[in-house]
Amino acid sequence: MTPVRRVLVANRGEIALRIIRACRELGLETVAVYSEADRGALHTKAADEAVCIGPAPSKLSYLNPQNILAAALSRGADAVHPGCGYLSEDALFAEMCRAHNLLFIGPPARQLELLGDKVRAKEVMRTAGVPVIPGRGAVSSHAELAEAAEELGYPVLIKATLGGGGIGLRLARDQGELLRGFDEVRAQVRAAFQADGVYLEKYLRPIRHIEVQVLGDSFGSLVHCGERECSLQRRHQKLLEECPSPAVSGPLRASLTAAALKAAEAVGFCGTGTVEFLLDEAGDFYFLEVNPRLQVEHPVTELVYGLDLVREQIRLAAGEPLGYQQGDLLPVGHAIECRINAEDVRTWRPAPGAISRLVVPGGFGVRWDSHVFQGYSVPPFYDSLLGKLIVWGATREEAIARMARALDELILEGLPTTIPFHRATMRHAGFRAGFYSTDSADQWLRETEIVR
Prior knowledge:
By secondary structure, this protein is of the alpha+beta class. It is 35% helix and 28% strand. It has 15 helices and 21 strands. The protein has an 8-stranded antiparallel sheet, with helices on both faces. Strand 13 and strand 14 (285-291) form a beta hairpin. The longest helix is centred in the middle third of the chain and has 19 residues, at 175-193. The radius of gyration is 21 Å and the shape is globular.
């Protein structure tokens, strides 16, 4: 077991605050890092110490491994928690931490390297007997691309072997879109990841996005915490999540979670992460990817399973055993999370600015995870997430009613947000019935007049 005393949190915003709080409860000291744009941010005040790691652009600060490592070593940290996004899935950064005797709170570099290569990961899953979306491995020329697309049949998705969060992803309905999309994806991932690998997948619609939370220790034990529904999305990024999924029956849940554990076992997974699937109308599911890190939507699973996933992540990275079995993890009730973003919902464009008024909801079963406050100025350099409103209810119907009430109480003025969309969603017949897909958010916006 690796002793942990002082953790550097290599992230910002609400997730940095979430990690700092978990560390404090474990009796661990924390070091926050911040860019010049985040000077005075809440996570810097919550930590025991804070270090500036560079100018506002992420490439020069939160994505600068040398500056982060220098901060960790100079402040006496013995572990680094990367949060989610940024360097959380960077195998080289994980290895750099190990080389400097810093515990990386996440899977080992070899697992990150494997899972970061989507083509290799799919081959591992196919060999392990996990259902995989029809597709074609790495393609490197227009001729090879066109041949693969004809074989799969249009429409197809052009995807980067290294990517995520909508980066390196294009839909092609014909050969013209295919060739343009191929060049665009390669250019985008060269800029973001210094790589240009591309592969094709059959575009399945309508489809639901379901993920299974898994936890594994270094002794080979694996468990799951059920599934989360993540289908309400815009631009391939999630807007709302719920646990459990209204689309998943008992038998399907058993199949999904068994496949997730099989996938985790195939890569020797250690830590907390999710195995993501696409679910079609016929009830067939296909492996999408493994996210070997904390997810933004982890609170809905925490509320239903009564498990602090950040605490577990730290324990498992330090080499502790799980300490519980699958039968010990019993779900209770239903949870929903709404992501409150600084965006104009009519265009989904980010809308940074100053928060002139903020009133946060409360009451039984309501949780608000956020880093913003009244008077806070939202910088234009980062993700548009302002906070996550999460509720728990004994039933899905109770959770929807509680979320509707909490959204009505939430006042966040001074800039456009996604609050109007979520309020309309709680009233939408399709959502209330549990009938929705990854295409629904844009469809519902066209059906409903949503104003600021």
